[in-house]
Specification:
The protein is of the alpha/beta class and 256 residues long. It has a domain of 160 residues: Ribonuclease Inhibitor (Leucine-rich repeat, LRR (right-handed beta-alpha superhelix), Alpha-Beta Horseshoe). It is 32% helix and 11% strand. It contains 5 helices and 9 strands, in the order αββββββββαβααα. A 7-stranded mixed β-sheet has the order 1-2-3-5-7-8-9, covered by helices on one side. The chain has a two-stranded parallel sheet with strand order 4-6. It is rod-shaped and about 130 Å long. The N and C termini lie far apart (169 Å). It holds the Pfam family LRR_8.
């Protein structure tokens, strides 16, 4: 009878918590659960974490993992948090994001902070389907096509755009430049307004160069042909035999 009673008690606990099962494992040291502005919050700021912790309640709406030593976010790291709305991963040492890092959060996540990390590039797949406002500032960005594609998928947090700067891994002529200003002038994926404009300019130059080459070739052929003509000796026209008139013929007959 003890086992069924325990099972019934578990069901009652689930119903009493709105259908969410409490995590069987407590939060790591330095982490705590709180209610902020009426929303379930899990804070692990400055907890010395090197990996995404376990034991996060699945009814968490705000998750703070900032100021730790997280170096990567694996696939499905937060998929057990079905109502997560805000995720703070700032001030870590993140250098890698899985393409499925935010799997399962497409319908809920609204705010994502990835600032002050070591991100040089991120996979665009990680942000597909997310309707989020993101902070990408203070990272050593490579300023590549992947970043340009990500910015087409997300909205930047207000006032953070100027902090997206090309880092040491970017092309030498891009290092230190603000990416948003750069993206307005140069298309890094080879398409779009900037790429189309440069492609049109190149095509026009190639066409003009082709026509110029044809004109030069024609002029050269014309000049050489005329030089050959001028070197040839002039042919004298044949002199026709003199035509005798009827008067001359009658005079000749008289003499005879």
């Amino acid at each position: 009878m003890l086992a069924p009673a325990c099972h019934l008690l578990s069901l009652l606990l689930v119903m009493g918590t709105g259908g969410t099962m409490p995590s069987p494992q407590g939060p790591p040291q330095g982490c705590y659960v709180a209610e902020e502005a009426g929303e379930q919050t899990f804070r692990c700021s400055q907890a010395g974490l090197t990996a995404v912790p376990t034991g996060i309640p699945n009814d968490t709406r705000k998750l703070y993992l900032d100021a730790n030593r997280l170096a990567s976010v694996p696939a499905g790291a937060f998929q057990h948090l079905p109502v997560l709305e805000e995720l703070d991963l700032s001030h870590n040492v993140l250098a890698h994001l899985s393409g499925a890092a935010f799997q399962g959060l497409a319908g809920t996540l609204r705010h994502l902070d990835l600032s002050a990390n070591q991100l040089a590039s991120v996979p665009v797949e990680a942000f597909v389907g997310l309707q989020i406002q993101v902070n990408l500032s203070a990272n050593p960005w490579r300023c590549d096509c992947a970043l340009q594609e990500v910015l087409r998928q997300v909205r930047l947090a207000p006032g953070t755009g100027t902090g997206i700067v090309c880092g040491p891994g970017a092309r030498p002529d891009l290092v230190g430049q603000e990416f948003l200003l750069l993206a307005g002038e140069e298309e890094l994926c080879g398409t779009g307004r900037g790429g189309a404009r440069r492609s049109t300019d190149v095509a026009l130059l190639v066409t003009m160069g082709g026509w110029l080459a044809l004109v030069v070739a024609y002029l050269a052929h014309y000049v050489w042909q005329n030089r050959d003509e001028t070197r040839r000796p002039l042919k004298r026209a044949p002199v026709p035999p003199p035509v005798r008139s009827e008067e001359d013929s009658s005079t000749l007959s008289t003499l005879v």
